[in-house]
Design brief:
Largest sheet: 5 strands, antiparallel
Strand content: 25-35%
CATH class: Alpha Beta
CATH architecture: 2-Layer Sandwich
Function: Catalyzes the conversion of (8S)-3',8-cyclo-7,8-dihydroguanosine 5'-triphosphate to cyclic pyranopterin monophosphate (cPMP).
Pfam family, one: MoaC
Catalytic activity: (8S)-3',8-cyclo-7,8-dihydroguanosine 5'-triphosphate = cyclic pyranopterin phosphate + diphosphate
Subunit structure: Homohexamer; trimer of dimers.
Strand order of the largest sheet: 4-5-3-6-7
CATH topology: Alpha-Beta Plaits
Number of domains: 1
Number of helices: 3
Keywords: Lyase, Molybdenum cofactor biosynthesis
CATH superfamily: Molybdopterin cofactor biosynthesis C (MoaC) domain
Structural class: alpha+beta
Helix content: 25-40%
Order of helices and strands: EEEHHEEHEE
Shape: elongated
Number of strands: 7
């Protein structure tokens, strides 16, 4: 089977025979690894007003979404089959609201000292945080849209620092 290549690098989750496997990180150095990710949920203005008022009958929507996002980082390896379980040292989740666009932006920062990165954990936190908002508000707005989920920045490890371009 031919190896799949992108940007002159091989996909690392496949062995020589093309079979999926967990990447061996045993010989990698332990470094400070950081990843930042973000995403957006769009909703009706009335839904955002309900979230901002704090009068949602299910409670503090943003607070619960923050806890869900943090919990998701700790369960990433349980959900993504070839992801390594990691001892995280920091997880920060921030929500920013924009009443003009009727959106909530979720931004995450995940850190560890380890042999593999935390990009998937940062992305998982964004997805689960936004899905939690959707779950809590779906009774009043089933048309909400989760969009623009992306890695913003990562640092540490052999590949060093990567920052998303303005186009991504």
């Amino acid at each position: 089977m031919n190896k799949i290549q992108t940007n002159h690098k091989e996909l690392t989750h496949f062995d020589q025979a093309g079979q999926a496997h967990m990447v061996d990180v045993g010989n990698k150095d332990i470094t400070h690894r950081i990843a930042k990710a973000s995403g957006v949920i769009r909703m009706l203005p009335e839904t955002l007003a309900l979230v901002l008022s704090g009068n949602h009958r299910k409670g503090d929507v943003i607070g619960i979404a923050r806890i869900a996002a943090i919990m998701a980082t700790k369960r990433t390896a349980d959900l993504i089959p070839l992801c390594h379980p990691l001892a995280l040292t920091k997880v920060a989740v921030e929500f920013k609201t924009n009443e003009n666009t009727s959106t909530i932006i979720c931004e995450t920062r995940v850190e560890t000292f380890g042999k593999t990165g935390v990009e998937i954990e940062a992305l998982m936190a964004v997805q689960v945080g936004l899905l939690t908002i959707y779950d809590m508000c779906k009774a009043v707005d089933k048309g909400m849209t989760i969009t623009d989920v992306k890695l913003i920045e990562k640092s540490g490890g052999q590949s060093g620092t990567w920052i998303a371009s303005a186009q991504s």
